[in-house]
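User: I'm putting together a teaching handout on how sequence relates to shape, and I'd like one worked example. Could you take DUF4268 domain-containing protein from Halopseudomonas formosensis, show the sequence you're using, and then write out its predicted structure as tokens right after it?

Assistant: Happy to. First the sequence, then the structure tokens directly below it.
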Amino acid sequence: MFKINPTANRISPLEVKRFSDLGFTERKHLQEWLENYPQALTQGDGDELLIIQKEFDGFDDTRERLDLLAIDKEGNLVIIENKLDDSGRDVVWQALKYASYCANLKKQQVVEIFQRYLNQKAQSEGAEPANAERVLLEFLQADDLQSVQLNTLKSQRLILVAAHYRKEVTNTVLWLSQFGVNCQCFKVTPYQAGTELFLNVEQIIPTPEASDFMIGMMAKEDEEKSASNEQRRSHGLRLAFWEQALEAFIQSSCRLFDNISPGRDHWLSAGSGLSGMSFNLIFGKSEIRVEFYMSRPQAETNQLVFDQLFAQKEQIEAAFGAELEWQPLPNRKACRIQYSRAVDGYNKDNWADMIKWLVEHMTRLEAALSAPLGVIRQNLKNQ
């Protein structure tokens, strides 16, 4: 890694350091960094991790403790093992043991584990704990826990983190990949330039090219699996609801959804004129809502747009006619502005009133954001 000097038009190498030389330890430093920014261990734009436990030792009949437990956007549990300067010989065996323990966890157990983690964090910060199930469903962009595919059979992932890997470790990881075991190795290297310290995080196994191929194969396998009865029922209800809702929008003054087709997801999106930012309708089992969702791959752009809109919060809410929920979604790439209503969504007798509500409030939301988004759109073009 090199430091660029634009004035002299030269580059100079950064000094490679060992964690131990800098006084950094596995538990107090590397583990804390990854807990608070797990996206360092993600590769693609849509890849995200949510930490649900730290130093977890709640397995039956053993007091062994895994470093970090996370969940990805597909509902797979991710076991993260940190080894600092040297991987050691047994890190793969440790991770496999933890994966075998986690494989038996049911949905409700995962929620309870996450809730204990949120309770501990809230206690240390002197705050009220968040609701684990609500945070989990928000992260997975799911309607209810019953229909979520969470910690399914053979879905557990392993992530190993170290500055140096022994050959017996890398050989074993590559061999396991032939049997469908999803194991990634990340090399972490600290650098120093004067008083400044830097950390490079690089996935070395599998390489990004091989990773894309493996993801494609897993996606194909998932596509070929039959959906559960609950999923089929939800898909049928959503399709029927969106058909009625879109018909109502055609009859309204709101033109956002004129060219949108009904689908099986619990959401419908329409463009806002800003790439990666959409107006969304949400149809859930217990909630409906309208929202403006900022989800560009660049988290900084999403935050910039959110902040500019939030600076006009009073005027926007006055135009909308009610207080909106402003959600910067920290540690996520996306941001959201929404307005919601509790409903018995799967009761078809309520659909006419729900659809009327969605049409009215999406019309109001689009109108309230129209002028501010026009200014932001022009500013982004000029950058």
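A couple of points you could highlight for students: The radius of gyration is 24 Å. Residues 15 and 294 are 38 Å apart (CA to CA).
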